[in-house]
Amino acid sequence: MERLRGLMGRRHEDDPLDYVRDLTKALLEGKLIGEEVLFRDAVGEIYSTLRKEVLSKTSDQDYERLLRAYELAVILRYLVQDGVKTSREILEELLKTL
């Protein structure tokens, strides 16, 4: 994870949703796909960051949008863990949702 954060040049505490956007864009642009470990780390980071954000929001008006992004991250994580490599459409939807 530290290597991934080093490549991204920032930590997720700065602005968690911005960090997820940057990770998603990097995946879509193919910057992290070359190494499977980095790809899986990025997907895991997207998932855990969105999960933390969803669980911390209880009455925010953006809750539904955030929940939808989290749901997409759950699907993406599932697909990546099971070795399905057709996740581009989910990444694009995630980026639009954010």
From TrEMBL:
<protein>
    <submittedName>
        <fullName>Uncharacterized protein</fullName>
    </submittedName>
</protein>
